[in-house]
Design goal:
About 60% of the residues lie in helices and about 0% in strands. With about 220 residues, the chain is mostly helical. The radius of gyration is 18 Å and the shape is globular.
Length: about 220
């Protein structure tokens, strides 16, 4: 998993400098995965166009091109390997069924990971007794602090990404989900809000609280 350049404080969640530090670590691990932010190669673009017209063999090429991206997202959200594998299969079935509605002006990877995110969040909701991941009492925006520069930026490259992966897996789904959707699936605030069934302005609250718990799970700023 390669490193990527990140801009501390670029997120508009209004987090603290410690939030920015966690954000940088997550961003460095997430979008840097193979296949992220990479334009479609001509063969995959052609296969996608043929798959949209109903060519099943062409969709097999699309599956091979994006299966690892979808598998990573499902594993991040669901943690349990068997459930994540089942979810990956379901996601591609759903994507194939909905392919005719795909807007070609939107990056296909983003669209596909949005389908995956919706499916995984639905699975997480079914786990929850109340049927929802988030309550309105969890989303009060007055808890957001003002932003600031991160004093830890220079040390982040030396952090063990395995620690981060384990810390993410330990998070409660309501806090793991917004981090994964923002930094691994690279969804916009609006897309996250739609997926989690909250208001766009509440996404920043969720991210702030998620990063706070992730930071504590990692043992603070060290």
């Amino acid at each position: 998993m390669r490193e990527v350049a990140v801009q501390v404080g670029a997120d508009t969640s209004g987090g603290t400098s410690a939030d920015d530090a966690v954000e940088t670590r997550v961003t460095a691990q997430g979008p840097g995965a193979p296949g992220a932010r990479r334009p479609l190669d001509p063969e995959t673009r052609d296969a996608l166009e043929r798959a949209r017209l109903g060519d099943r063999d062409a969709f097999g090429h699309v599956y091979e091109a994006f299966r690892e991206d979808v598998a990573r997202l499902c594993a991040r959200l669901l943690v349990e390997p068997a459930e994540a594998e089942d979810a990956r299969s379901d996601v591609f079935l759903r994507a194939q069924e909905r392919l005719a509605s795909y807007d070609a002006s939107r990056p296909f990877r983003t669209w596909l990971l949005s389908v995956a995110a919706h499916h995984c969040i639905d699975r997480l909701r079914r786990r929850a007794l109340e049927g929802r991941l988030f309550r309105s009492s969890d989303l009060q925006t007055e808890d957001l602090p003002s932003g600031g520069p991160s004093p830890l930026q220079a040390t982040l490259g030396r952090e063990d990404r395995e620690d981060l992966s384990r810390a993410l897996d330990r998070l409660d789904p309501r806090y793991r989900a917004p981090i994964v959707l923002r930094y691994f699936a690279e969804l916009s605030y609006q897309e996250i809000a739609t997926t989690l069934e909250v208001e766009p302005r509440q996404v920043g609250v969720l991210l702030h609280r998620a990063k706070d718990r992730l930071r504590r799970s990692l043992g603070g700023s060290r």
